[in-house]
Design brief:
Distance between the termini: 44 Å
Oligomer: single chain
Largest sheet: none
Strand content: under 5%
Helix content: over 70%
Number of domains: 1
């Protein structure tokens, strides 16, 4: 298993543990789909890059996707989405500490 997969999994599990102890069960059910989406971007960015290539809208060439997305960009966006909560927590603490 790649190091990036291990690190992303550890961060995702940490989020789940934090939400479990701080939030309620409903919060946990809101976080799980988000984490699945983000982990999918990080783990399967290479495969997702080719998703939809060659398809057009309604069978026409308009809106046709001719080239795959850069896999590194897909993985980077997964990391950004995974790390946003870590960046927002200190901001939320600063705002509420008035």
């Amino acid at each position: 298993m790649k190091l990036s997969k291990i690190i992303s999994l550890v961060i995702a599990v940490a989020y789940l543990v934090i939400v479990h102890f701080i939030g309620d069960q409903e919060s946990l059910f809101e976080v799980v789909p988000y984490l699945i989406f983000v982990i999918t971007l990080i783990w399967y960015g290479d495969d997702l890059a080719y998703y939809g290539v060659g398809s057009g809208i309604g069978g026409h060439d308009a809106g046709r996707i001719d080239e795959p997305s850069p896999p590194s960009l897909i993985k980077f966006m997964g990391w950004v989405l995974l790390l946003i909560p870590i960046l927002l927590i200190p901001l939320a603490i600063l705002i509420t500490a008035k």
